[in-house]
Amino acid sequence: MSEFIKPEHECPFDPKHYQCDCFIAPVGSFSWALIQLKLRKRVARSVWGGKGMYLAITPRVNDLTVEEGSAYAVDGVAVGTQYDYLTHIDLRNEHGNFVPWQPTQEDMMACDWKFFEDKVKPEPDTKPEPEVKQEPELKSKPYTVVFDITPVRDEKTRWGALHVDEKPPIMIENNLELANIGGATWTISDHYNDPDEKKEHGDQFSVNLIPEIRDTPLFQDLRKRKLIITVNGETYNLGNCLRWSKIDFTNWFTYRGEDAEKIGSLLKQSDKTFRFYCNWYE
């Protein structure tokens, strides 16, 4: 190793020498930028714009050895050669790569040097996108029933309210010429004693209409339509009502599925009044 590049021939650097109450170099000057590099700060020029370019100092590394297969060895430097990797300034270019840098005359005379700051990337939104429910295509005016219900628990397997209860559902409006709501309930499969009924019915939401419409065209029309219920601004698509293989309850329209379960969760909130906006669409 030559005497010239030994550490004792490099100007010693102590950061304390650059800390005082006086101005050492004008802020923004090339001299100021060199001091910041010595203090292990990153600097850039304003004219480099938003390309992500900056300078950083690479400190000296001593007592390295050329190893077999390294770039130096491939270039012909003898394996085992000892060397020091000297302090220098690197430029991070606009492509994100680093290369040794030397200033131009323009760089040395510029007064637009500044600290480089990484642009803070916004945190990705980890919340799942809300499901957009497809509204049914309106082929005709829907059948509409609006009622208030204050759920109570009936036994241990059913929640909701019936017209015979102390707090029955209250009809607000409808375009079916109905007199009342017979009931709206959430029933779990354990409500049924017969194993076949328990298996077929499962957990379900049901709504009953008064008066009797079973033998009317309206009854069959409602069974073919999709029921959309809105409660507190939330919309629930219950789809078509179920058809049973053994029995068919008079005037009861029954639904299962994810949105039916959400309606069931509302009906489990005893003594809280909800307004149900029911629309049957083609």
Automatic annotation (TrEMBL):
Residues 29-115 form the Thoeris anti-defense 2-like domain. Transmembrane segments: none annotated. It holds the Pfam family DUF7823. InterPro entries: DUF7823 (IPR056725), Tad2-like_dom (IPR021361). It comes from the Bacteria. Residues 201-280 form the DUF7823 domain. This is DUF2829 domain-containing protein. It comes from Xenorhabdus hominickii.
